[in-house]
Write a structure and sequence with these properties.
The protein is an alpha/beta fold. The chain has helices spanning 32-42, 63-70, 86-95, 104-108, 111-120, 153-163, 184-193, 207-216, 226-229, 235-244, and strands at 5-13, 16-21, 24-30, 47-51, 77-80, 99-102, 125-134, 137-142, 147-152, 167-172, 198-201, 221-224. The chain has one domain: TIM Barrel (Alpha-Beta Barrel), CATH 3.20.20.70. Helix 2 packs parallel to helix 3 (86-95) and helix 6 runs parallel beside helix 7.
Length: 253
């Protein structure tokens, strides 16, 4: 059985790590390079870097910052923000990214998923899906969670797999930053409907929340930000807890 992964996420705005609630009310969470180094030392399985305002500001992800972070870490590193061409991906791979994540651009130009997969391999393409429960339907949002689409979340997840995505990063906007737990229902539904790994995101507030999402959905990884950034939970403590709960995670070095 594949080991479940623990992934800290660095949401970047103006070169700093930030974190909000329900995608708004952002507050500073520290220097991204220093945080990345801490997470590697603690035993994080991967790291995700999201330049959260690149798309709405119509610019590219900060390649210079990606290069600085990649020089300090030795774990898989996924980068997203403002990617809308294969050339953008090439720049980030050259800067040190192992994988890229696309969100709004994939919705607006689905063939981009296939283009990236064709040039760099499916394992390089993570499609981020920001989803919100609206009138009892889980709907896909783009532009940093600001714009709803007509896409139903499960249908879009199936489609991105068919287009060549190697992984889905699924964020529940309803749960994001609330620390009330992951959204078990949509995470489970997406995991059951695709054959690629699903990263659960949005709502982690306790070690029990990680146990719950791993036990009750087919997700292969769980992502968190603020609980790690502000020291509420450390990755070693979390992994020890999960191992005691009989959840298969990578052992600490």
């Amino acid at each position: 059985m594949l080991k479940r992964r623990i992934i800290p996420c660095l949401d970047i705005k103006d070169g700093r790590t930030v974190k909000g609630v329900n995608f708004i009310n952002l507050r500073d969470a520290g220097d991204p390079v220093e945080l990345a180094k801490i997470y590697v030392k603690q035993g994080a399985d991967e790291l995700i870097f999201l330049d959260i305002t690149a798309t709405i500001e119509n610019r590219k992800a900060l390649a210079g910052l990606v290069e600085r972070i990649s020089a300090e870490i030795n774990i898989p590193f996924t980068v997203g923000g403002g990617i809308d061409t294969v050339d953008d991906v090439a720049i980030l791979i050259k800067a040190g990214a192992d994988k890229v994540t696309v969100n709004s651009s994939a919705v607006l130009k689905p063939e981009l998923i296939s283009e990236i997969a064709g040039q760099f391999g499916s394992q390089c393409v993570v499609v981020a899906i920001d989803t919100k429960l609206v009138d009892d339907e889980w709907i896909v949002f783009i532009n940093g969670g600001r714009a709803p689409t007509d896409l139903r979340t499960v249908n879009w997840a199936r489609m991105v797999e068919e287009l060549g995505a190697g992984e889905v990063l699924l964020t529940s906007m309803n749960n994001d930053g609330t620390r009330l737990g992951f959204s078990i229902d949509i995470t489970g539904e997406v995991s059951r409907n695709v054959n690629i790994p699903v990263i659960a995101s949005g709502g982690a507030g306790s070690m029990e929340h990680f146990r719950e999402v791993f036990f009750n959905t087919g997700c292969s990884a769980a992502l968190a930000a603020s609980i790690f950034h502000f020291g509420d939970i450390t990755i070693p403590d979390l992994k020890n807890y999960l191992m005691n709960e009989k959840i298969n995670v990578r052992c600490l070095i």
